[in-house]
Design brief:
about 475 residues, alpha+beta, OB fold (Dihydrolipoamide Acetyltransferase, E2P), Chloramphenicol Acetyltransferase, seven-stranded mixed β-sheet, four-stranded antiparallel β-sheet, 9 helices
Length: about 475
C-alpha cells in the first residue's frame, strides 16, 4: 500500500493559485482513476479535477474555501501495490533518479537516453519543464546563508551567528533550525493567506507546528480569541452561508460587512479597471422600433428547426451584430500596444455576458459568424446555462472578439458598458417596452428598445461606430434586411 499525494496542477496557462470550492470525496472513500474529486475556482472558471490515482482517500490536506498555490498537495490517497495509478502530475525537481534495473545492460560511458514520454492525465496540464512560466522574484541571499535548495549539507555546520532561512525551507539532515529574527513568523503560503483573510497578525503568534511554524489551527485560534475580545464583532458565518462563488467568509462589524474578493470576481474587477483606464471608451445610443423583430421571434419559436431551443430577441440582436461585423470588419479588432497596430480578428468569437452567482462571466461562441440561426440559438442557450450552473470552462471564456450584454433583463433601458480587455466593441441591449412612436406620419404604440455601443476610440472612430450601430438598428427594425445583407 503506497501513499500518494495529489498536488494542485496548473489547469490553465500561467495559473499560480486556485480556490478549493468543494470536495466530492472524504477520508475513507474509495476512488478510481479520473473520478471527479474536487471543484477548484481559478481566476477564470470553476474546474472539476479528476483523481490521478485509484485507491482509498486517507486525508484531505486542504479544506474547502482555502486558496492554494499550484504544486501544493491537496489530497492523500493510498494506492494498493501502486497499481492502477496514473503518472503523478508533478514530481519534485530534485528527486533522485531510480537505480538502473540492469547495470550490465548499458556501458558506463553510454550516452544518456532521453526519458520515455509519459501520458498526461486529461485536464492536468503538461509535465514540468515542458512549458515556461514567469519566474518569481527571488529573495536576496544574505552573506553566509545557505542556498535556497541545498544539494548537500554544508561542511562544518552553519556559520557563526546563524543564517536566516525563508519560511518553509527544509534544512539538510543533521542541521538544527536556526532562530528567526524578531517579528518573523514561519508559515506556509496557505496559512499566511488564511491569516490575511481573517485579519490575524502572524508576527504576534507562537507557532505550534514543526520547528515552531504557525499552523492553520494557530491562525483560527487567534481569530477566535480576537472575536471573543471584541464585543463589536459578530461570529464569522459558517460554511453553509457561503455563496457558491467561494467568495464569502464575511467579517461583520458594527455597521459594515467585509467580503473577501477572490476567483472570478477578483479577476473581473482587475480586468474592468485595466480596460476602463487603458482603452478610451466612447458610447453611442440608438432607440429602435423592434416591433417586427418581436413578431419574428414569435414565428421562429414555431419552426421545427428551433424545437427545444430558447428563442429570444437577444438571438436576433446577436445575428444582426454578426452581419454588421461582416459589413464592417474593423469593429472586430484589438489594439497591439507594443507594435502600435490594429489587429483585425477572424473569425468572430461572440461573447455573451452572463450574470452568474460567481460574478460576471462572458463565455463566447467560437466562430459564431459561420453558424446558421438555429445553431447560434443552441450555442448561446448552452453557454448561458453552463455559466449559470458554474460549469464554464477556461476555454469558453478565452478568445472573445466582440461582446453583447443584455441589460434589458434587469429592466434597464440603456447603459455605458465597459469593453472586455482585448476587444474593440461591446453592444448593450436594453429592455423592450411599449412606447409612442411615429409610424407613417401617425402616432402608434410600438415595441421599442435602446441599443448602446461602446467602442475603443483608438480603433473605431465615430463614423465606423455609428455605421455599425445604425446597421444593427436597421436590421432589428426590419429583419428582412438582415437576409439581404447576409
Amino acid at each position: 500500500m503506497a501513499s500518494k499525494e495529489f498536488r494542485l496542477p496548473d489547469v490553465g496557462e500561467g495559473l499560480t493559485e486556485a480556490d478549493i470550492v468543494a470536495w466530492h470525496v472524504k477520508p475513507g472513500d474509495t476512488v478510481r482513476i479520473n473520478q471527479l474529486i474536487v471543484d477548484i475556482e481559478t481566476a477564470k472558471a470553476v474546474v472539476e479535477l479528476p483523481s490521478p490515482y485509484a485507491g482509498t482517500v486517507t486525508a484531505l490536506l486542504v479544506e474547502a474555501g482555502q486558496t492554494v498555490d499550484v504544486g501544493v498537495p491537496i489530497i492523500a490517497i493510498d494506492v494498493p501495490g501502486d497499481e492502477g495509478a496514473a503518472p503523478a502530475p508533478t514530481q519534485p525537481q530534485n528527486a533522485a533518479p531510480e537505480p538502473a534495473k540492469d547495470e550490465e545492460a548499458e556501458p558506463a560511458d553510454a550516452p544518456p537516453q532521453p526519458p520515455a514520454r509519459q501520458p498526461v492525465l486529461v485536464g492536468y496540464g503538461v509535465k514540468p519543464g515542458s512549458t515556461s512560466r514567469r519566474p518569481r522574484k527571488k529573495a536576496p541571499t544574505r552573506p553566509g546563508s545557505y542556498p535556497a535548495t541545498p544539494s548537500a549539507p554544508p561542511v562544518g555546520g552553519p556559520p557563526a551567528g546563524g543564517p536566516v532561512f525563508p519560511a518553509g525551507l527544509k534544512l539538510p539532515p543533521g542541521i538544527p533550525a536556526p532562530p528567526q529574527p524578531p517579528g518573523a513568523s514561519r508559515a506556509k503560503p496557505p496559512v499566511r493567506r488564511l491569516a490575511r483573510d481573517l485579519g490575524v497578525d502572524l508576527g504576534g503568534l507562537t507557532g505550534n507546528g514543526p520547528a515552531g511554524s504557525v499552523t492553520k489551527d494557530d491562525v483560527q485560534r487567534a481569530a477566535s480569541e480576537a472575536r471573543t475580545r471584541s464585543a463589536a464583532v459578530d461570529e464569522v458565518p459558517d460554511a453553509a452561508r457561503r455563496t457558491g462563488a467561494g467568495l464569502s467568509q464575511p467579517r461583520t462589524a458594527a455597521g459594515e460587512e467585509r467580503i473577501p474578493v477572490r476567483g472570478v470576481r477578483k479577476h473581473t474587477a482587475a480586468a474592468m479597471v485595466a480596460s476602463a483606464f487603458t482603452a478610451p471608451h466612447v458610447t453611442e445610443f440608438l432607440q429602435v422600433d423592434v416591433t417586427e423583430t418581436m413578431a419574428a421571434v414569435r414565428r421562429t419559436r414555431e419552426l421545427p428547426e428551433f424545437a427545444g431551443v430558447r428563442v429570444s430577441p437577444l438571438l436576433f440582436v446577436a445575428k444582426a451584430l454578426l452581419v454588421a461585423v461582416r459589413r464592417h470588419p474593423v469593429i472586430n479588432s484589438s489594439w497591439d500596444e507594443a507594435a502600435q497596430e490594429i489587429v483585425v480578428k477572424r473569425p468572430v468569437n461572440l461573447g455573451i455576458a452572463v450574470a452568474a452567482e460567481r460574478g460576471l462571466l462572458v463565455p463566447n461562441v467560437k466562430a459564431a459568424d459561420a453558424l446558421p440561426l438555429a445553431e447560434l440559438a443552441r450555442a448561446v442557450d448552452e453557454l448561458a446555462a453552463t455559466a449559470r450552473a458554474g460549469k464554464t470552462t477556461p476555454a469558453d471564456l478565452a478568445g472573445g472578439t466582440i461582446t453583447i450584454t443584455n441589460v434589458g433583463v434587469f429592466g434597464v433601458d440603456a447603459g455605458t458598458p465597459i469593453l472586455m480587455p482585448g476587444e474593440s466593441a461591446i453592444l448593450a441591449f436594453g429592455q423592450v417596452r411599449d412606447m409612442p412612436w411615429v409610424v407613417a406620419g401617425e402616432l402608434a404604440v410600438r415595441k421599442v428598445t435602446t441599443l448602446s455601443l461602446s467602442f475603443d476610440h483608438r480603433i473605431v472612430d465615430g463614423e465606423l461606430g455609428s455605421a455599425v450601430l445604425r446597421d444593427v438598428g436597421l436590421m432589428l427594425e426590419d429583419p428582412i434586411r438582415m437576409l439581404a445583407w447576409l
